[in-house]
User: What shape does this take?
Amino acid sequence: MPITLETTPLTLESYQVGWICALSVEADLAELMLDKIHDPIPLPARDENIYTFGQIDVNGQGGSHNIVIARLPSAETGTAAAATVAKDMLRTFTNLKFGLMVGIAGGIWSPEVDVRLGDVVVGAPDDNGPGVVQYDHGKYIQGKKFVHRGILDKAPKVLRTAVSVAKQVRRRKAFLSHLDDDDVEELAPRSTDDILFEAAYAHPDGARSCAGCEVQRKKERPERRDLVPLVHYGAIASGNGVVKDALFADDVRRKHGILCFEMEAAGLDNFPCLVIRGISDYADTHKNDDWHAYAASTAAAYAKELLKVVPLTAISQLPSIGNKHWLVPRPSTARFTGRESVLQKMKDHLVRRSDDNRERPTFVCCGMGGSGKSETAIKFVENNRESFWGIFWVNADTQDTAKDGFAKIASACSISSTSIEDVKSWLANEVSPWLLVLDNCDTMNKDYSSYFPSRQNGSIIMTTRLPECKSYGLSDDMDKLGPEASSSLLLQACGDKYQDRERHRDAAANVVKLVDELAIALVHAGAYIGKGFCTLQEYPQRFHKTQRKHAMQFSPVQRASRYGSVYTTFEVSAKALSASGDKYDRLALTLLRILAFLDHEGVEEDIFKRALEYHQNLNQNLDTRPHVFEELQEAHTDVSCDVQPSQLVLEEHEPEHGARVKISVPREMNSLFQNEPRSSTAVVPTENPFIATVDEKSATGQMSCPVSVSETPSLSTNETSEHDADDGEIDHLSRWHYEEFRSTHLFDSNTLSDIEISRVRLADLSLIRVNDKAISLHPLVHEWASERLSAEEREQAWGQTVCILALSTEEHVDWQTFTMSLQAHIKACFKDWNNDGHDDELPLDLARCLHVLAWQTYRADNNSITRNFYIVRHCVSWTSLVEQPMQ
Assistant: This one.
């Protein structure tokens, strides 16, 4: 059949059928079956597969299926190689609906099933049993030749239906027409000799052909009327070894109903497909390459005929099988150790098969903080990525973080509404398999089922410290890693010097016992030892010394037996940095103090880069004060205090409709703003110190309500600074912000080099993780980093942190990217200030930071405590506040 080049440009998403071949000759014959070959398409850098793009026309429908053919790397066969090819194919072609594994195999003849060379075996048994059986051929268990390891899921229903059509009398030999092509006949001529020897008769050693084999040992079989290959339907055995044992093969056939052996299909566990094999030998010692090409051609011809009878609409209605959405915060650590049984238990429970009708399988990873729950969840999603069309990670630590997580799902999936309920509803109606990970479900008496979509299409993982959450699904207690895995993880973290496990077994066991097999403590202890601060044998002494010195520094929860051990391992590392005379070790501690007041995940390098750039501009022109707001809408706005001390109320009057919208401000905010407002042309003072009404517009046309403050003390000195004697307006930053930024000494070089080196020092001690220049901390490290600070250190670090955040927003930003990424960090800053219970007056320059940050939060339409900061006590310049109704 002539092959025509296709010039119409297509995309990776245009291809819905994946065709995998193990050998080059198989792929060459597959290409000859295409009705058209398409132009190549650029691939992602991570995909090293070699593809052929084309199409196969559908019978009588005037349309075609777009096919992508992949071949295994040269000289690589087996289940692992097939799994790698399939994984890359699924990641590249996100709209694939199913696959075909097409090639050659070793057949098993019997009087009951007359399998001969050149015949085709399709992995779709008539009894609806498994199409592919995974086995080990005497490799691991002595005395047992065939070890049944599992089965592949049945082929997708649309392919099984097509197989039924192909079985019809009028179509049984239709596939043979695809062999009547000059190119096919030239590449894959049919051999004349189809000889089957007795099972017990082995091929002579060293003989290159069967010319010298004993003719009398040939197996007598009934003559076929013609040389037309037949199609058989039954189970296919798949393993990593080539089978050259006819006695073994016949025994397997009788016991398990196997029709042929091959080496790749078992690697396609996450690739819904149909396996089609042409018989090239009899799985005995007489096997040779004479029938390879012809057997590959008959298998390819059958695959083509099968696709020709699959309706276009049947494929278009199928869900995609590749992983299209990947919302996972970071990769797993390279030191991940153990948990094999948990991961297998999770896979068995969460990865759904085609006939699985369970309602929303849920798995609960339960254990104390630092036990490795989240890390195990990340490892699971990495291992099983291709089993789910979408994997969505939601930090369920608070209602705000959960809202953010569901909003990210909405953005990724182009859902118009970002509300939790609407995203849940959308997931409930999505037919493709999805996985929702609810991380940090640690709030007592919280009904986490309120985050569950209502229907059965997906699966859910929860990580929690709360034993009561086990009721949500199948669970596993993960507090302890186990002695062997703990020692392995510790020594791995210690580095190459400690890889002789037998030599260091006893010393490692002492440290493992010290930290009670808790994963995060083992990693930190190992990192400390690996950096050479002490030996493995000396670590227990360092640990106990630090524990005694800092025992009363932490909260009661932190001092609790097992958590106390964890925090001590952190403190041992911090003490080493503090005692060092190295500049960058000290700067690392400064960076850690700032990270303590940001969110524990996703601290992007861009935050520091933008802050550095704007602080330089600020220093050059402190008299230029760009207003935060650029647009004005007319409105009449009151900021008032309800007579009840429990809340402040904002009343907004729309001049056109007279509508009134209120936002309640939490009671704890009242203490932050205690002084009366200064007079201004834009403010009408009232007797009530909590009321200011906007009645006039300034000369610029901007409505302004300056903040009510005291004499604006410097955060560091608690005294009035000369550089704060400015106009008292809140909508710009000042020299104080420049000097506060410089006071960190993290930017003395006027580059990010000091930040980068400090980041490396913290990462070397496993106090932080760095992924693509973004920093994250384990929640326990994050909590410890804040708790270990004195009140004075906390105040200074908090001021430096809000200053860095405020500076980072002052240049023109794309609020849909950078501004949105700031939200969690802004809320973390406000939360820390609020939790400290400040009753003193708020300095003007800090109010300026809060004003800038709260505006960023308002832009993101986030109804959180930060917007309350924005409206409380007139810390605003009103321009865009009424652009949309407040909820």
Q: What stands out?
A: Residues 318 and 394 are 27 Å apart (CA to CA). The radius of gyration is 34 Å. The chain has 26 helices and 27 strands.
